[in-house]
Amino acid sequence: MAAIRTLYLVNHSHTDIGFTDYQDLCFRQHQEFIDQALDLIEATQSYPAEAQYRWTCEVTGMTEKWFQRASPARIERFQHWNRLGIIDVAGMQYNHTPMQTIEQMIRSLYPIQRLRDGYDLAISTAMQCDVNGISWLYADLLPQVGVELVTMAVNPLRGNVPKPLPGAFWWEGLAGNKVLAWNGFHYLWGRSIAKLGDWRFVDESLPPIIAGLEASDDYPFDFLYAQSTHPIRVDNGPPDRRMPDFVRDWNAQGRSPRLVFTTPAALNRMLRDDYAGLLPTRRGDWLDWWSDGVASSAYETGVSRGTHEHLAMAELIGSWLTSEGLPIWSAERAAHAYEQATLYDEHTWGAFASVAAPNSLWTKAQWSRKANYGYTASAEALDLLSQGARALASTVADQDTEGMFNLGDLEPRAAYPAPRADSLLVINTLPWPRPVHVTEPEQRGRAAPAGVLECFFPRDVPWGGDRPGTPMRVVSGEVPGFGYAFLPLSAQPPGGDLAVSTNTIENAHYRVRLNPETGAIAEWFDKTLSHDFAATYQDWGIGQYIYERVDSPEDRQALFWGDFSMDDFGYGRTDTPWQRWTASTVTVGEPAIEHGRATIAVTIAAPGIRGARCVYALESGAKSLAIDWLLDKEHQTGIEAVFIAFPFNLGAPRFRADVNGVPFSPNKDQLPNTVRDWYPIGRWVNVSDGERGVTMVPLDAPLVHLGGITTGKWAKELELDGPTIMSWALHNHWMVNFQASQGGEIPQRYRLTTHAGACEDATAARFGAEQATPPVVLRDYLRTGPETGRFLDLPGDAPALVTAKPAEDGDGIIVRVQNLTERELTVPLSFPGPAPVSAVMTSPVEVNESELRVA
Known about the structure:
The chain is of the alpha+beta class. The chain is built from 15 helices and 45 strands. Strands 25, 26, 27, 28, 29, 31, 32, 34, 35 and 38 form a 10-stranded antiparallel β-sheet that branches. A 6-stranded antiparallel β-sheet has the order 24-21-30-37-36-33, with no helix packed on it. A 5-stranded mixed β-sheet has the order 4-5-7-6-10. Helix 2 (about 60-70) packs parallel to helix 5 (about 110-120) and helix 11 runs parallel beside helix 13.
């Protein structure tokens, strides 16, 4: 409890990439805001010091674009006021979601170093606004790049905020680094809630807030730090020209608390100087309630998840080529691809009218642009991967005869001569050796699209004219880690362990039997563990489709009662009238063995879809179960959701998951009031009872409910109904921003494996990486070099994930090593090819630090 003497105001524009305007216009507007802020700063220099205008650039994504286009004179103005602490730059690239990979998180900090090096800017803080969280990994990353404070301004609509609010604490990361965190009011608090700047309302709005904080035992500060945006353009708004006069006049009248314009950098200094030793330390992920919005565009979200993997694969191959003295990698193109991916993953999904007016030009244009970010990133990633893979192939092989686009005047075999190659070139971009079963791509004679390898292009697309048919052939073998192998086309999968019978498929590890009435798995028997992992939850079995509706005249208010006059902008409803259905008709097909796989297909008719097909598959010799749904979704603007059920026959469940890039336990590893009703998954999620368990990899759909369906609980602590994972495949629960409906064919693919004992993070991470990262397959290459080769060698049992990328400055490669244990770990690296002449430890943003020993 303390009397609040000073109210520090931070004026900024909240950055939505869209929402209020078409995305490209928002980029232009934010650059104009910086010019307007510089004008206002200079226009108020004669004011008392506390009323002299200050401006904070919320994100580096907009700020860097301003510098790229500004004249030397404008840049000099900015630098002058930045040196004086009048205009501040916060260090996050955009307002992010948990869709990001670790590499995206790291790359999102690169603009900090570019702005420091290129323009001599001081950047010591970071801001996240609107979003309900930030990845725990940033607690480690930010201090490593010289960012000392992160301020959060959570929008609690359909979410929540850690308490006490407002407040400060030391946020400790998994690696033990700490960043100072300010958990602040909503970014529009200053203008829209306290009504600062408006003499009509401020005397009624501000005093109760101040009195409440002064009476609180949880608020020890004699100041309040608050953000303020434009009074009407609260998002993507310009500098507030009325505020300097208001601050000047308020203080001249002797009012309390005193108002002072400030910046995040000034808050950082004040907290460190006056409160550093008094603040508590907290550990855990600031897990974002708003992470659920990505399921409103399930197809594009699945594309984005694949793009993340393709970019990492392309970077690994680019690093290999760089080490061989073949620097074909384009850092500029990679940066563009990553930014496009990040702009899809960024928190703004579309127009504020997306649900109120889903068919308006306003909504359709913004969604088109948003989706385009994802599609552009995908195309760029595939092209980078294609160019790199072909360049690598050229170092060990010659390409076979090129085809001729057949206009119909040639015989197919004349246009496309019979290939001479008797093997497939397969590249493994993961660090450990892996057995593979790969499909021979169609013969295309190097036909378009040149930017996509044949192995990623759909079969039976008639580009190139009349071509000879390419019989489906599957090749099996082992490819070394971070390496390649030529696998003979004659090396067909053995398949001797595969068996089928009525409703049943088997391989060496599993017997899977379907319930013919539901199409779900009735038995999933692990032959090694002698245990049936199949169970039911609410009579739903593994792999079953569940459709959910809410039949209420309150529409989306039946989910969350929105009321901006309340502290949390409303409250989550716990009385929502949920309705759920399964398939109305189910047809289980005949099981089959073909190309080294045992499969059984199920087709259904059900609410919410025109139809759907699910294929259950076991691969010869693989301890992995594939469940692949293809939903033909109907558009539905009323409240809906689709779940795929995964109930398991286990004892008391313990859940573990890849969340925001790190192994994570619900409740234990998250801050208070962060989301527990759903979880955004990276590559894998695991449930075990200590004796045995299951790891599931959702390739397309990142959202899961743990223990059963948990929407509508608004839980402070996750309470488990049982050992069930519910994949929240798609929904449209939001009232703004996200899509009102989605339709068409939407794949939902899952990979599962079982294990003895409790979850081992490294084992789960390895399974997740293998399922999410496809091998690269090239056909029609005539080998001229070694049959196998490796780029980078490390111990096969190292409990770590290792990735590589070409250095941004073109001088060498960057190797990133993620420790998947809670103990100190040493991972020796060796290069079978050209050896490095030197090695240094770098910061996440590639600033050289200490030298490393090279043997």
